[in-house]
Prior knowledge:
Blueprint: E1 4-12, H1 18-28, E2 32-43, E3 48-53, H2 56-67, E4 74-77, H3 83-92, E5 100-102, H4 117-126, E6 133-134, H5 138-144, H6 153-165, E7 171-173, E8 182-189, E9 192-200, H7 210-223, H8 228-244, H9 246-249
Parallel strand pairs: 1-2, 1-4, 4-5, 5-6
Antiparallel strand pairs: 2-3, 7-8, 8-9
Amino acid sequence: MAYIALTIAGSDSGGGAGIQADLKAMSALGVYGASVITAVTAQNTHAVTAVHGIPLDVVAAQINAVLGDLDVDAIKIGMMATPEIIHTVADAIADFSGPIVLDPVMVAKSGDPLLADEAVRTLRDVLLTRATVLTPNLPEAARLLDGQSAATVDDMISQGIDLCGIGAESVLMKGGHGSGDICHDLLIDASGVIAEIKAPRRNTKNTHGTGCTLSSSIAAGLAKGLPLTEAVAQAHDYLQGAIAQADDLGIGQGHGPVHHFHRIWPA
């Protein structure tokens, strides 16, 4: 029997992030990926030029269709542009009892906004309590807490604990937006740091879809029944390999995608 993960997110026409990145990562890691599209974006490696939200009844119908038939082992939730979509998703997954990875997608790699200001509070109030693990980058964590981006590892720990305090079971504070030659990712629960993962910071502009890829990779690990710390560690290792071959992949002229299938075919 196949392991199954469901991604609920937006579509990236350029193929590097969103639903497309999620399904590629899940497939590369040996997990069957199902999908629910919350928005269609006109997007490439340079910019997001248009966003069209999927009607709420269609979002709910997609979720009901998948959960009503497939034995989903884990869910990853990504882009949800409006409060209404967030409420719709929360209602539709209310009876799901498996692990949920919540990636609070707010801004595209190009800098274009993907989450309306009024939706941030809704995301915090409605879905944080459903998150087995929340996976914010530093600006996203700060926005969820109405604060400033963490400048130090101690700041990251404090903000991670605060996010657990308002509902998340655990938080993976991603250090990609930090400084220094070493990138620190911290897995945190209400008691503090569970695990710290370090990696050299790579000098590349081709990091489009890294957040989507990491969160969906974690969901793939959880779908296989891995403990959270192991799922995070394996997802991190997979992503580092995907970033390492991103320049050789050479897709687009802007912020290109990582190489999701680096373990299967070389760039």
